[in-house]
């Protein structure tokens, strides 16, 4: 029996001839598909072939390799009916994915229905196609599957944050078209997905989200365009859900990036980050999302990303809620869609539902354990941690840290005052966006402490001094070891420690009233436990900054 696509008129209009060519292509690709399902097609051991199909591609899992071809389809956002377009997409996929997953993306190969990949046949082929040849990996190591087995480790999250931050730091920033990454484009994307969700899920359920997205967009639109003008729109992955992240050997790889649509790839780095944060939240792991966010911020210094982050998280969740409804309408797809919709609603309600904001100030000498302990607290509270050492060694956000030691000129009294002023501005912006803040600095001068306590009073949030303590011998040992290793951001050595002890101003009576003593001469697992931070975790919205005057 002939397939309906096989009939083609011998003449006719240009449109008819085009339709005939497309039918002929589809017929040839069906032959190629049958061939690629056979182990004998491949020039290497292939055993049983597994075939995976998406809206745009077909992937053949053959032995140690995977071959991905593009389907001759046309949607509103992509047109692969032209063989040249399919080849360009394969070339782009290979090139772009090597940024975050080089070990997986091997080569571009020409395939045909009558020859194996990488070798030709005298008989030729009915179709000339190209496939991306990839190295296969253990699918049990996908982040989505690791989460299902409760096997995703903190180290995996840290590796993912570091790899993503590094890609953002060094990503191309020459945006090819002015509209890409703009507030206006985001608005149109939001409208489109909200309209789609209203059709698939129901207008009444989507309208509250539509109103909130409109209000939030109005609040951050100026920030979005300012960030674009300042270079925060870059060539990104664009599709960072947990099925596209895999544990690989001693690290993490991120694959299958957006290669077919500049509007989905040239985006604000905050939008790229928001996708993986959203998916972790959707899987019930807000704690891991908080950890990844803090590690990414440590590496990039892009605290301005927090301004539009909730809107981006809601947008990403709405996209997934909509996409899962486009396929087969099954109980599983509906449940997945509902989970993503709930994640968008949670982002909308987060400022009201989250733990009340607080400003937590680290206090103690270099080597007192502030940095290690504050990182652990940031994951538990949760809060955004800001480090004076990192801020001092970065000229501006989204630039790599200077790893070498700074000169003595960076530590004069005036420079130290400037560092605290920058910390204060950063803390103010974070608090205003509804996040708690931990400021990791020594805070040995009273004027610096009071400036932050005044900020807490101004914004009506609780302030606490976390007074980190250890024996003199322990502190000196830590500082000496750190100075020898040269692997820490801190430039403090024993001479700096002696100067700190000589110049430190003790906490006043009023400051002691909001201080919480933290003994760091304990094992790291103790510091990482909720019990260690019991007094901090009990801070609630009724506890306001103590009335600490400048004369107390």
From TrEMBL:
<dbReference type="InterPro" id="IPR011009">
    <property type="entry name" value="Kinase-like_dom_sf"/>
</dbReference>
<dbReference type="InterPro" id="IPR052732">
    <property type="entry name" value="Cell-binding_unc_protein"/>
</dbReference>
<protein>
    <recommendedName>
        <fullName>Aminoglycoside phosphotransferase domain-containing protein</fullName>
    </recommendedName>
</protein>
<feature type="region of interest" description="Disordered">
    <location>
        <begin position="1"/>
        <end position="25"/>
    </location>
</feature>
<dbReference type="Pfam" id="PF13671">
    <property type="entry name" value="AAA_33"/>
</dbReference>
<dbReference type="InterPro" id="IPR027417">
    <property type="entry name" value="P-loop_NTPase"/>
</dbReference>
